[in-house]
Amino acid sequence: MKKHIKNVIKAIAFRLPLSIYVPLCYALHKKAIERAQEHGNLRLHLGCGWTILDEWINIDLKRNREILTIRLPGGLRKFGDNSTSYIYSSHFLEHLDYRTEALDFVTECYRLLDDGGVLRVAVPDIEKIINAYTRKNREFFNVQSELHPSWCTTNLDHLMYALQQQGEHKYGYDFETAKILLKKGGFQKIVKSDFKKSDVKELVDIDYWPYTDHNGENLSLFIDAYK
């Protein structure tokens, strides 16, 4: 009976307007956030989608009992300055407008991080697919055909899909462009990394986007930005 009541309450909650659900959701996660802050170990997983990382506060606009549902980047203003040890965001930044939302996002991340804190970002590595296109690297695009929709038949189809993701992607990044954005947000030490590799032990095993090219190189660009 109790389980049934909980399921009914959950079903009702998930149907609430965002204006009601978001503050309710934050109230439910508040203790976990405060507990992590007390131990100096608050870790935010931003734009998590349905991927839940243990011992992290998983944040997205999706609704799930394990997700703190807030709209990014504006919802980050709920968190105090210098309150966070680590921030991780995988394949989310490219969904934000470069000149407005993305800059606001990295600026907020910098504000939230304590001194010595690190933002780790993973995005599609646009430089890799552009290089493959200009070199007419068929092996590279044979792998892409396994990841992209069936209507992508030419190299240009794959390139455009990687760039735009049918309108979901608002920008694309190489290391140079991402570094400029992060510097505008306040970061100075910005390091190009790799899949499940980092100089920060807490960030070594958190990557979960496993897709590689024909040479076994990950298709994502990984960056650690230090405050």
Question: Which key terms come to mind for this protein?
Answer:
227 residues; alpha/beta; Rossmann fold; 18% strand
Q: Show unreliable segments.
A: none
Strand order of the largest sheet: 3-2-1-4-5-7-6
Order of helices and strands: HHEEEEHEHHHHEE
CATH structural class: Alpha Beta
Average the pLDDT over all residues and give the rounded result: 92
Topology, number of strands: 7
End-to-end separation in angstroms reads 50 Å
**SS-based class:** alpha/beta
Query: What does the largest sheet look like?
Result: 7 strands, mixed
CATH fold descriptor: Rossmann fold
Name the helicity range: 25-40%
Number of helices: 7
Count of spatially separate domains: 1
How does the overall form come out from the CA principal axes?
globular
Radius of gyration: 19 Å
Strand content: 15-25%
In short:
39% of the residues lie in helices and 18% in strands.
Describe the structure.
This protein is of the alpha/beta class and 227 residues long. It has a single domain, classed as 3-Layer(aba) Sandwich (Rossmann fold). Helix content is 39%, strand content 18%. The chain has seven helices and seven strands; from the N terminus they run ααββββαβααααββ. The chain has a seven-stranded mixed β-sheet. The protein starts with a helix and ends with a strand.
Topology:
Layout: H1 2-14, H2 18-38, E1 43-46, E2 57-60, E3 67-69, E4 84-90, H3 98-112, E5 113-124, H4 126-134, H5 138-147, H6 155-164, H7 175-184, E6 189-192, E7 220-226
Helix pairs in contact: 4-6
